[in-house]
């Protein structure tokens, strides 16, 4: 299925973008869950028009704004986004794919640092989607480092495919895991070791685990892993004043597009990106867009 616009992220930037694009009669799908950083904030004092408001209440107000708009919402995790010329292929779990004429990346930012060797071994034994790649490890030993609820689901699925699964619990006390899964609590992973492929995961305590494959399940990953060829400045996607990236039809807004990490700024950038994307979509779908326009 093809949409006019796909928004990756359901925080203030993503929801602002979705509403503004929908008002301009664009078909919109939003991927993502509520922003935990906002929902857990006790008091926000600088959001115009609300005085002091809790993060949870402000987030509820954001979601209420979507009511009455024809906006599709999905909690599926986007694995990768590929530019295909006049549209984007958005890859989901299980090799599912949707298409969109334009994409706005509003994923927020992952403040946790990569493990040593994570970049080196990405795609060579380190993966971010267990349900995508578990079949490569049938009959083998796998380690999954889990930071969220999704990691529990991924671990349970993977344990039914591989010979042995070890779950490194970075999520919460007593996650609901299958009985056959070995759980490691209280250890901090720091480094992958190997030559062409990772063979060992090292922990801060000095503990080591050998395995055939490793999965890391976080809330988000680096922009260049999500969108090949995207230009970044450290952890941020580089944008212009219209929130355009170096890839035609692709926008970024909110924390992923740089500091300050503020709700007001994120919502404003979401609107800017949506307004420009709406114009872009109209031009592309009418056949009037030229490469010189980007």
TrEMBL record:
Annotated coiled-coil segments of the chain: none
Check the record and name the InterPro entries matching this protein: FAD/NAD-bd_sf, FAD/NAD-binding_dom, Ferredoxin-NADP_redctase_2
Keyword annotations for this protein, in alphabetical order, are: Flavoprotein, Oxidoreductase
User: Does the keyword field hold Flavoprotein?
Assistant: yes
Does this entry carry the keyword Translocase? no
UniProt cross-references to Pfam families, sorted A to Z: Pyr_redox_2
> What SUPFAM superfamilies does the entry give?
FAD/NAD(P)-binding domain
Task: Report the domain of life of the source organism.
Answer: Bacteria
FAD/NAD(P)-binding domain segment(s) = 3-270
The name of this protein is: NAD(P)/FAD-dependent oxidoreductase
Task: Name the source organism.
Answer: Anaerococcus martiniensis
């Amino acid at each position: 299925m093809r949409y006019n616009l796909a928004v990756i992220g359901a925080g203030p930037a993503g929801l602002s973008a979705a509403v503004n694009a929908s008002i301009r009669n664009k078909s919109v799908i939003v991927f993502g869950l509520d922003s935990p950083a906002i929902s857990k904030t006790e008091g926000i004092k600088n959001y115009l028009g609300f005085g002091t408001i809790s993060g949870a209440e402000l987030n509820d107000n954001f979601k209420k704004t979507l009511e009455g708009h024809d906006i599709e919402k999905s909690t599926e995790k986007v694995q990768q986004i590929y530019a295909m010329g006049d549209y984007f292929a958005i890859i989901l779990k299980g090799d599912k794919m949707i298409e969109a004429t334009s994409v706005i990346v509003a994923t927020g930012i992952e403040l946790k640092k990569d493990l040593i060797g994570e970049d080196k071994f990405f795609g060579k034994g380190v993966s971010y989607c267990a349900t995508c790649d578990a079949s490569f490890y049938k009959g083998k030993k796998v380690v999954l480092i889990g930071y969220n609820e999704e990691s529990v689901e991924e671990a349970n699925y993977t344990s039914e495919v591989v010979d042995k699964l070890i779950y490194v619990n970075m999520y919460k006390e007593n996650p609901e895991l299958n009985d056959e899964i070995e759980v490691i609590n209280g250890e901090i992973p720091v480094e992958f070791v190997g030559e062409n492929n990772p063979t060992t995961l090292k922990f801060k305590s000095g503990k080591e685990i050998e395995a055939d494959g490793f999965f890391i399940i976080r809330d988000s990953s680096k922009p260049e892993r999500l969108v090949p060829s995207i230009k970044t400045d450290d952890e941020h996607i580089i944008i212009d004043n219209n929130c355009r990236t170096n890839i035609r039809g692709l926008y970024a807004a909110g924390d992923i597009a740089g500091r300050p990490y503020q709700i007001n700024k994120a919502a404003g950038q979401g609107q800017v990106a949506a307004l420009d994307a709406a114009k872009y979509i109209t031009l592309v779908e009418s056949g009037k867009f030229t490469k010189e326009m980007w």
